[in-house]
Amino acid sequence: MTQAHVLGFPRIGAKRELKTAVEAYWKGVLDEAGLRAAGRELRLRHWALQKGAGLDLVTVGDFAFYDHLHNATALFSAAPARFGIERIDLPGYFAMARGTAAQPALAMKKWFDTNYHYIQPELSADTRFALNRDWLFPEVSEALAAGHTVKVVLPGPLTWLWLASGEAGFDKLRLLSPLLNVYYAAVEELKRRGVSWLQFDEPVLALDLPAEWQAAYPVVYRELAPAAPPILLATYFGSVAEHADLLQALPVAGLHLDLVRAPDQLDVFVNNTSEDKILSLGVVDGRNLWRTDLARVLSVLHPVKARLGTRLWLSASCSLLHVPHDLAQESRLDPRIRNWMAFAHQKLDELAVLRRALDDGEAAVWQALQASAQAIEDRRRAPSTTVAAVRARVAALRDDDARRASGFAQRIAAQQAVLGLPLLPTTTIGSFPQTADIRAARAAFKAGQLGETDYVAAMKAEIRLAVERQEQLGLDVLVHGEPERNDMVEYFGEQLDGYAFTQSGWVQSYGSRCVKPPVIYGDVSRPTPMTVEWSTYAQTLTDKPMKGMLSGPLTMLFWSFVRDDLPKQDVALQLALALRDEVVDLERAGIGVIQIDEPAIREGLPLKRADWPAYLDWAVRAFRIAASGVRDETQIHTHMCYSEFNDILPAIAALDADVITIETSRSRMKLLDGFAEFQYPNDIGPGVYDIHSPRVPAQAEMTALLERALKLVPAERLWVNPDCGLKTRGWPEVEAALARMVASARALRARW
Ligand code: GLN
Ligand code: ZN
Fold first, then answer.
1. What atom of ligand 1 comes closest to residue 431's alpha carbon?
2. Residue ranges of the Cobalamin-independent methionine synthase MetE C-terminal/archaeal domain (predicted)?
3. How does residue 145 score in pLDDT terms, banded at 50, 70 and 90?
């Protein structure tokens, strides 16, 4: 029999039960016993789903009240000394993940190139490990008691260690030996308790891993394997073909490969697999919500099956953590599009079908294969997925379309002639507070209780208020404040063709936070202008320049579930053209300053450095196509709030935005050093105050930051603005902070 399994299942629950329970516990309205009961119920339900679908092994250890990497930190008692925690219990676990009055939280980091974030272990030379059996083991007992065949998943030792932070100059590998001691104790006990398989997740193998880390693999697995249940070493998010020899030689019982991201690595592993290893092939996409082309996958699997027999296992590419729970809940989705999708629950069924097709022959699952083939075919033929006019426009793009008419020097002079801005011009990043009134109006509008005319009137009243306040504050380039936007991607997605929206397509982002990304299912185009009415209305209220506000093609792409039947770069170009039309329409309507936000530009960076240039090439091109349809006089801004781009500065400069605003206040302008060193050529607005906190900084604080910036950037190139949009703040603090920001800019101007 071919084994089918998953590397992990979404833990949040079909109705986000985990979020509800955890947040109730934080508020003090649910006690620890209640929270634990909620967790147990979800685990039992998710294991039952796996077994019910016909999977042989259930996966234990993928559950976490906050984050699975943080669970391992608790299991190993690796609390940094600053928390003063002896034995990590549930309150201590949350204290480290969320911070306390006395201690900032452990850092939160992006999980590889996903939108999931993990809690980073914090290690130092003084770190000591000890096995804390309050973690993981009760869940193992639970699963065994429920009669399941248990595969336990843990972060592999080298992955856990690699992802941890250490003080500068500290070699984390020095902790490997004590870490292995605690792993040893854990795996020995798991074996004793009757765990059938142990899955060690080692996704760091898909990164550029230094030689000494690669060399540590045999050491680790030689040490652990004899004491442990059979080990499945799981890799995902990229190819590990370069490590084939290393991996084949490890004393592990199996390897898992991500064949969705890296299908080409199959050959090297099938052709050289050692007889003692099973090969688990990730053929169902764990990162996206599309149905698997079962016929295509089977054509790949049949020869492998012939060769490996029962040594072939089937799985999803990576943990299903990154996909929503259950498609059955989507009652409002267009049934045709819905039929193209598979959420976590449906992916279990796909694995079961594939397994039966291999073991019992395709006739045994004829109906399921037929349904899959029909859905795939329907998607391929649907008029919405291939729109000739959109394809033709992308195909006709020329280099000139990605280039402004003149260079920056000429453009900025033309812009200055029109705009007449003072030295150190002040502006904001776009959004103003999303007040309770705004949210109530939108909710009423969506529920049909407020008519469109009334809703538009309510939003215009908010815009008027925002403009009046900005005029009073004396800002130089105004914004309309974005009251009409729920979210910077959804708002545009709703107005573009090719986008769909789920009701319950939640995926965990961090802790109890979930996101519900829109879905790009078809060719993207813009049927009508999206923002022109709001921006032109706002411009009628002031003589100051009104900045139009758009989300960029890359941000639209990376914060959505993207179709898998077209290269990402083609989707980016479609988005770019839709946005280009909007930019041109804004210009035509008299908007002379237009900002295209790209906070997500880094999210597309490939895991391996060698692949960066190719990505940055098409990413930059997409942005430039969106931005380049306008005259010299029209000023293009962009905004990014990632706190690191020193390593991609040439690409940032290549965007050729006239003005870039970035988040710098928390780094106290340190981020600007890179721009200065690189001699970043265009205008730049380093954020002078942190919008993540309600604190209103003193004027002198902002002045000090600006003085630092003036040492790094010529005064004529420098703008004055906050770090990011202000939608999460309240008006009183916003007005107070902006008043000081304007005063600071004016005082410096006078001195210059
Ligand atoms: N214009 C957006 C705003 O101000 C930018 C948001 C972002 O960068 N994340 O809210
Ligand atoms: Zn931002």
1. 4
2. 424-746
3. very high
